[in-house]
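The protein record filed here:
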Amino acid sequence: MPASPSTARAINDRLALRLLQQQGPLTAAQLKQHTGLSRPTVADLVDRLAASGLIEVVGEAGAQRRGPNAKLYGIVADRAHLAALDVRTEGVSVLVSDLVGRVLGEASVPIGHDTGTGHAVEQAVALVERVAKEAGADRLHTVGIGAPGLIDPATGELRDSGGLPAWHRRLVAALQERLPAARVTVENETNLAALAEQRDGAARDRDTFVLLWLGIGTGAAVVLDGHLRRGASGGTGEIGFLPVPWTRGLPSATDCAGGFHSLASSAAIVELAGRHGLTAPASAEEPLGAGLVRAAAGSVSADGAEGPQGAGGGAGDGGAGGAGAFLDALADRVALGVASVVAVLDPGCVVLGGEVGRAGGTELAGRVEERIRRMAPLPTEVRAGVLGGAAVLRGALLTAREAAQEELFAPPDR
């Protein structure tokens, strides 16, 4: 049964808007080429979308061309403003953008472990309000939040998780109360990092892959056939609880000590580096473990051979030989988690994400891949993430954009 004229128009409008979202401004002729629609149909949908305030003329295709088809049409960027939050145990980062993802403001605030729940929530909410005001966003349409812990797949709410500050769960409700007109969504931080690496990072050519998060904590995100998999209780990827050798015991239902977390968290990496005589100065830009891995990787990759010290003097008395041995030992540990994922899911590609994954670069990823070739019968490429810790904010912004555009671009009769 053929679609009604109104349904056909709605389908065409959504198709054009999706193209403008993904590719940026296009001419009417380019819209015709990409959609396969007739020239009159494209002209009609351009007029209709412009009249509804969704698109506008943003320029011309080139100085050599004139006329209607030379006009470049783009999404009206200030039709909606969005906020993205990266909520960590030690603080929160916020950015505000327009509807096409252009960042208008960004800031962070540390929140100490001894900060009371109410005060911590107020600090985080006040930061969102301040960044939005400074960005000129009088009203936020959608707020996307990335947080550690489990997200209930039925309700979309952050569940109670052992070891996480109480203010994490309170923050979502507080933002909704202070920003009643905004749509507030929350997603696991590792899942958001995977979406960002797939859109803009190391997994752009993959619709099936696993992202292994290596930072202060550990986690994994599973993308199969283009879809993020969360599991029955939202716990897909809780790899920190994976039982592994070389630990002092087994993890419990409430404590991942003894699991993979005990081998690959930032604290475990710092301890491992110390055994190899490596030290690095503390940095506010990344976890100490990531700094040690970055220095070691820089040392062994310099001129294709190991130098006498870590990059920039970051490696201490262990020297370059210690740096290489440290990366080998870390790769042994990381490979345990990767091999388990490969044996169960056969993703074909594992991205080492988070601050440590990015810091290790190809030096760490190559070492892990070589071990996986020996440990697993399934061919698997191991790649270094390129977004690091910034992937969470980027993923939160992507989900906020998609949610806002889904609502704003919906057909009128839906």
The mean pLDDT is 89. Residues 202-386 form a domain with the Nucleotidyltransferase; domain 5 fold (CATH 3.30.420.40). The CA atoms of residues 150 and 172 lie 14 Å apart. The chain has twelve helices and 13 strands.
